[in-house]
Amino acid sequence: MKADLELPVRSLSQLRNQLAALAERESVSLLLGGHDFPDQYGKYLILLALGAEEIVEPSSGENAFDALERACRKDGWWFGHLSYDLKRATHGLESSNPAYIPWPDLFWFRPRIVFAVRRDEPHVLKVYGSRIPELPQEIVHTEAMRVPRFNPSQDPEAYRRSIETIKNDIRKGTYYELNHCLEFRGVYEDLNVAEAWQRLSEVAPAPFSAYYRCKDKVALCASPERFLARRGDMLISEPIKGTAPRGMDEASDQMAIQELSSDEKNRAENVMIVDLVRNDLSRACIPGSVHVPELCAIRSYAQVHQMTSVVCGQSLPGVSMAEHLKNTFPMGSMTGAPKHEVMQHIERYESFRRGLYSGTIGYMEPGGDFDFNVVIRTLQYEAHSGRIAYHTGGAITWDSRAMQEWEECSWKARGILKVFDSLS
Predict the structure, then answer these.
(1) How far apart are the two ends of the chain, measured CA to CA in Å?
(2) For the chain, what are the domain ranges?
(3) Which of 11, 198, 292, 384 sits most deeply, having the most CB atoms within 10 A of its CB?
(4) CA 223, CA 73: separation in Å to the nearest integer?
(5) Looking at residue 77, what DSSP letter applies?
(6) Annotated catalytic residue: which of 225, 323, 365, 408?
(7) From 217, 241, 326, 339, the catalytic residue
(8) In CATH, which superfamily holds the domain spanning 5-421?
């Protein structure tokens, strides 16, 4: 795949801000990555899809994965998202809850221009496309931003009651683990999206981050989690279950890592989801090829430590990206187990439509390799209404304690809220 232009890269962070300035000018754009985290399965340090030559949005009544399948047959670069509400297509489940910021179930686009820095060529920016714009000067934003008032979908007491009801379901054997989430809503007129993105990149760098503009909606994502990737004939998923806050100093930080690593509840949650992912991958992988090269490893980020596992499998020949996504979506780390049963109950316990949250953002490159994240740790914004929102959640098991789960939701939101704290 020969680039149309190659440019030197002197600073990844500077390039990230320059590409974000380009993304800001388009109504459709997606900037992925921009942080040099270790990733043995990653291909790119940064990708920018600029503009849309072709858009795939399923029509009313059309199966979104059929529309995605048609796009997969057209070799080339494709980018976009799948929302959690595609559970309708994968599991026949509808949501009657209201959407605070409504996203399309599927938005998939072929960009006009792609900017890419490969991990094996970190000092070269490759550009694909015609009418290539010049890179702008790095923009340093200094505008003060007020802290918006966010209202949670449940107050602590209502949250406690939900957790106790979920635990009662588990006691009765209805399911084993359920991911219960909260939506925090606010209003922010004329949010400086570029400012917020730059600050999020600084205070909460993450390996699967994304700056995504989908018409008048924006997602600023600091996700640490890979949903599904394909490298040749190998599929990779890296589910996260288990979170602990960073310590105040080196000694307390190491203690937090040790405590998380040995915590039986978190390990049990992680293993349950690993088993679910193994089952999902097995639906279109060569029998016996699905394996777990890494189980319950601890990875550290700016705000939290995360317990992460790696599940791999060898794809059956001829299986498309659309089919692999349909087999595994939504990701088990954001549902629980068994997947179908818990999704039915999630609808009862949450008063909002998840939409983009718990969905996935990613890309497919020429040749068919792809990589998708899990949409968590994400600030969403709708320009015409000024609505702003973020979400947090966690896996509820029999051992869960409501107020500890509430505190964990706070840890996970810390990076998003620091976007405003650091500027006010």
Answers:
(1) 45
(2) 5-421
(3) 198
(4) 29
(5) -
(6) 225
(7) 241
(8) Anthranilate synthase (3.60.120.10)
**227 neighbors 53 (Cβ within 8 angstroms):** no
Tokens of 190: 């004329």
How many CA atoms within 13 Å lie on the side-chain side of 150?
A: 22
- Strands (DSSP E) found in 62-203: 78-82, 106-110, 113-118, 124-128, 151-152, 177-187
Is residue 225 part of the annotated active site? The answer reads yes
**For residue 269, is pLDDT > 80?**
yes
Using CA of residue 234, residue 112, residue 89, residue 103, what is the dihedral sign? positive
Whether 141 has a pLDDT exceeding 70, the answer reads no
Amino acid identity of residue 229, one-letter, is A
H-only helix segments in 141-249: 156-171, 193-203
Q: Per the confidence metrics, is the pTM higher than 0.90?
A: yes
| Beta bridge partner(s), residue 229 | 236, 371
Nearest residue to 296 (alpha-carbon basis) of 253, 255, 267: 267
Contact 64, 58 (CB under 8 A): yes
Q: Which long-range contacts (CB under 8 A, 24 or more apart) does 202-205 make?
A: 202/422, 203/302, 203/415, 203/418, 203/419, 203/422, 204/301, 204/302, 204/303, 204/377, 204/415, 204/416, 204/418, 204/419, 205/35, 205/37, 205/301, 205/302
Strands 360-364 and 5-8: unpaired
95-120 residue pLDDT tens: 999 999 999 999 999 999 999 999 99
Assign 65 to helix, strand or coil.
Answer: helix
| Tokens 């394996």 -> residue | 291
- Residue 256's φ and ψ, nearest 5 degrees, are -60, -40
Helix (H) / strand (E) element for 259: namely: helix 250-262
CA separation for the pair 111, 187 (Å, rounded): 31
Q: What is the 3-state secondary structure (H, E, C) of 300-328?
A: ECCCEEEEEEEEEEEECCCCCHHHHHHHH
Encoded tokens for 364 = 């497919």
